[in-house]
Amino acid sequence: MAGTAEEKLDLGMTANDIDDDEHDSKERVLQKYFLLEWKLVKSLLDDIVSNGRVSDPSTVHTIRSIMDKYQQQGQLLEPYLESIVCPLMSIVRTKTIELGVASDEILDVIKPICIIIYTLVTVCGYKAVIKFFPHQVSDLELAVSLMEKCHSANSLTSLRQESTGEMEAKCVILLWLSILVLVPFGMSTVDTSIAANSNLSEFEIAPLVLRIIGFSKDYLSNAGPMRTIAGLLLSKLLTRPDMPKAFISFVEWTHGVLSSPTGDVLNHFQLLGAVQALASIFKAGDRKLLVHVIPMVWNDTSVLLKSSAAGRSPLLRKYLVKLTQRIGLTCLPYRSPSWRYVGRTSSLGESTSLPASEKTDQGSHVQNVDSSSSEQSSNCTQHEDFDVPDIVEEIIEMLLSGLRDTDTIVRWSAAKGLGRLTSRLTSALSEEVLSSVLELFSLGEGDGSWHGGCLALAELARRGLLLPVSLPKVIPVVIKALHYDIRRGPHSVGSHVRDAAAYVCWAFGRAYYHADMRNILEQLAPHLLTVACYDREVNCRRAAAAAFQENVGRQDKQQGIAGVIPSIEKARLYRGKGGEIMHSAVSRFIECISLSCVSLPGKIRRSLLDTLNENLRHPNSQIQNAAVSALEHFIRAYLVAKDIGGTDDVTSKYLQMMTDPNVAIRRGSALALGVLPYEILANRWRDMVLKLCSACAIEDNPEDRDAEARANAVKGLVSVCEKLTQAREDLNIQSTEDDMSLFLLIKNDVMMSLFKAIDDYSVDNRGDVGSWVREAAMDGLEKCAHILFGAISKQAVEKMDKLREAAAKVLQRILYNKLIHIPCIPYREKLEEIVPNDASLKWGVPTISYPRFVELLQFDCYSRSVLSELVTSTGGLQDSLSKASISALLEFLQAVKIEDLNEKKTRERMLSNDILWVLQQYKRCDRVIVPTLKTVEILFSKKIFLDLEVHTPIFCAGVLASLEVELKGSKDFAKLYAGIAILGYIASLSELINLQAFSHLLNFVGHRYPKIRKASAEQVYLVLLQNGNLVAEDSVEKALEIISETCWEGDVEVAKHQRLELCNTAGLDAGLLHKTSDGISNYDSRKKPPTTDEHASYSSLVGSTGF
User: Which 8-state DSSP code applies to residue 658?
Assistant: First the structure.
């Protein structure tokens, strides 16, 4: 079984899943990238649910190995949590009820399931997972009994890879209890044992609560994750309004634990658990409940912080600091200080795209707001003054001491606590806190104090508690921290301080508006740049670079960007040892400018293009490749997108450079031609292809021969051919003459040039340099074979008999050519099965050609081109052709000769993906769209695409998105009829997307054309009969009555009124429906007066009937 699971895992990662995402729906992208192995996980979960338990231990290992890969990106699993957690927890609950808690079998059932759930907790966090736990009131006693069963079981120690599930079961059940204890009823009413105990006083704690507190206290002494979860459970239970007595009792118990620490290990873990539980309680509890126990808890905490037990344990000090800050937050009422800085945080894109005048205006506006807010703050100072409890001053002192701690986790917790506390103080007190933090940067302090001080400053800045007027006092110490380096013996310390200082600078960039940072940045930028470039620690360089980017990127620096490259050239930085590095860096700089679409004047654009052309002439291949990469983006951003002309000059220049005697220039120009976009290639594509073909051949003059130039010519030639063919398909260019001319040129000239390049065995003092050309030629032959065979196979499923026959014979001649064996033909063996070397085959007969060529739909390199032409036959008007093609397609999908169900579903899934691609690629092209919609309608009628599990709603969503575009304002009756039929099929599904399709159907019930209204009403009637979940059961009869008694071919206003009544009956939002209707079916009514004449589109109606 383990082997089978691994095979399934491999199947889930096939090349079929790697498609172009540009036109994919959001749901499909989620499925593809967020959990690539979802099909395998879903099948394993289905097995568990169907059996009611984990029957194969390898299943748990397989699922856990998949989930562990998402440890750093747990959010990617969140869309699937409900589908995973709900059925598994349902098994835990159901089996516990069926088998009973006393059964010995129950733990064997739930342990493997809890391993899976706990794996999700470790990856996604408990907050994301427990949302899907069952939370019926009756489950509380059940979960408590189950927890006691697990608690009393003998624990077996084992390695993580061989986990028995005991620890995971305890953690999951404790988390389950943390939800169940929040039931909105008194615990005494939930506890059934009270009914049997008549001696229980109303002031006594319920036995059920005592049981929970009992095992939770035991787990507070545990060294594992149960300690943290038990603290969470206690915080939820003891902060309930009906638990004051239990709360006081627990605080007294913690008082005993905290006030008598011993040196043994067990007591140490109990101490950790008690402090952690108190910290959780002070986070979740109400201030009125907690304020009475603060003196006792703070006294124990302050004493423990100074004890030797805390000195030995960084984790204990961290929990004590966390508890300290939460005690302080409880002492201070929540308030949002008016003096806090609230700056507008703009994105980098906004900073570089707004005009300078707007930025100046915005900056002055923010400054005015700040000044007005500061005035308001000064006016309301007397209202902000309040008595701060003495305990708060002690807490702040303790947090400041925590900033000096020797361990980073303690300093980090103290810094966050200090930021939270300061947000509840007055402006004057916050200034005192800032002064105390700045004292940490004195020369007598150690590296820990400097690090803690930086973290505190960053927290204050992030929360808007460090006002711009205080920055002049802060910046000097931050600059010192950026260069902090203390020599200690043979080594030095300070990298963590420099890293934290860079974090402070990053926080400045995020918190303050750039107008307030402009003067400050002039001081910080040189130091940040120095650290980013020269610090010996990579983490410091990265942090400083991020801070520099965050700050400088928000300033108006476009004028400076434009002058960088001229300054480099003026300083002659291209010369010397670093010249080559500078050439590559400049190309990369231009590429980044192009990707960001920074606005540049015409003179600067010409200067940058000249710089790239100079780099193309450089003999170093790395510099040339960098220039080519930059040129591709530069031309698209500044020559094509801006439509400023001059593209012909660029083309002519590169064609001239192809014949230059300098071999370096020939190398660069060949690569440059290969990256030109289609908009430039379209004018002189034939000249470029022929020029590159000639450059692939060995030069006649031995002195001019250069293998690298020929290899680059081959690469450029193949790239040009790919761009030409792909762009014609993407842009839906319908020019048969140009297409034939291009493909003939590829077949006759390009392929022959590549065949000659394969025979290039040139040798010089470097060895077999011709191998570079041969390698490029083999890659080119493979890509050209893809191009040619994709185009020819598309014609092999054409509507016209003579074209199908001609395409099949061309394939025969290529596959079985005795003079030249063409290599690199994708799936050659399968092609030879489809197209045998048999001259007697009548390829023009549809029943012979279609069953063979539809087999190409299972191969990615052929499927889309074949399908884009096949649909014109399957959904066409010619009846015999449609029957033959659809019969062949259904036989391929149903895979009569294939018994493997997975293979059948794989074919359906591939076809559905390709159909969505066709609908997007040929948007608004009725020649392809109308037959494609008819094909989808036929396939739906044959129950195709309806049982693909998670992929069915994804496909339906893509089809609906296409219908919204295609049916908007359409007058084509054939398209409208097909679209309405598809909406009917989707609305009949049990998936959630059916409601969206049903809403669209109701839109067409009020369409301006009577025939369309009638067809839509018929579909609505059928949908209501087939899918009873769309409308409330008591409203179905009334809805059917409205549809059957209304004359939908009558007056359009009456139809719209009846549609409104139908919407009310179905419980749909009529306002939203009208809004959608205006956008979909009545689009043209905004352009011209509506008409109720059904003969207005008579020609379309006639065409839809096949005449």
Answer: T
